[in-house]
């Protein structure tokens, strides 16, 4: 896709600091890092959202992410923990219309955090949880 910055990176038409690549995924440094060592893992095939990816490609992305997480801890960078962060859709905060998994090192006092809505922390009844679970279960693809 001409307008997709990640596709341009994959085609060699935009620069990237590559950390890892194979036939399925490419991992490179985020240009606006949460912390030093912030890496993005993307599939080689363009997909706007997770549901457009094959399970094999999604699995590969997370396997690569796991390897990068271990490397971050061994790298000498400040890394007391690691976050995996994937947003799927504009309402979730996705800014680039190409699936990407963020892997970034964390350390005490780094300032990163998530904000929760006003209903976060309110316990739901088991019947409410069961009702939502049934809706999700019924919408799951059959394998």
Please write out the topology.
Blueprint: H1 5-10, E1 18-21, E2 25-29, E3 39-43, H2 55-74, E4 81-85, E5 101-106, H3 126-139
Main attributes of the structure:
143 residues, alpha+beta, HIT family, subunit A, 5-stranded antiparallel sheet, 28% helix, globular
Quote the beta fraction: 15-25%
The level-1 CATH class = Alpha Beta
Structural class: alpha+beta
What name goes with the CATH superfamily?
HIT-like
Mean pLDDT score: 95
Got a strand count?
5
CATH fold naming: HIT family, subunit A
The number of distinct helices, counting runs of at least 4 residues, comes to 3
Domain unit count: 1
Oligomer: single chain
| Largest sheet strand order | 1-2-3-5-4
Largest sheet: 5 strands, antiparallel
Written description of the protein model:
There is one protein chain. This protein is α+β, with helices and mostly antiparallel strands. It has one domain: HIT-like (HIT family, subunit A), CATH 3.30.428. Helices cover about 30% and strands about 15% of the residues. It is built from three helices and five strands. It has helices at about 5-10, 55-75, 125-140; strands spanning about 20, 25-30, 40-45, 80-85, 100-105. The protein has a five-stranded antiparallel β-sheet with strand order 1-2-3-5-4, with helices on one face. A hairpin with a 3-residue loop joins strand 1 (about 20) and strand 2. The model has no long low-confidence stretch (mean pLDDT about 95).
